[in-house]
Amino acid sequence: MSRRPSKHTRPARPLLLAENSYSDKQDGRWITRAIAAGRSVKDYICPGCNQRIRSGEAHIVVWPYEPPLGAVSAVEFRRHWHSNCWLRRR
Ligand SMILES: [Zn+2]
Hints:
By secondary structure, the protein is mainly beta. It has one domain. 11% of the residues lie in helices and 30% in strands. It is built from two helices and six strands. The termini are far apart. The chain binds zinc ion (ZN). Zinc ion (ZN) binds next to loops.
């Protein structure tokens, strides 16, 4: 009788799991997702410094962990930030 490895003991897929994380700021908890260099196709304006995030530049996307009252979806509140600007935000 051979023992096949259980699928429960296989390592999880860390890249997928690491994609989203959380930040606790003064105004609550935000979900953050890192956008790798070369993965964005648009320019965005960073709310932290009002400067452009050029397309293809690595940055992060954030949205509220809980949608604000009356909002259909937290995804409407998605914002693109320079990684450093987000880290400096309180
Ligand atoms: Zn910025």
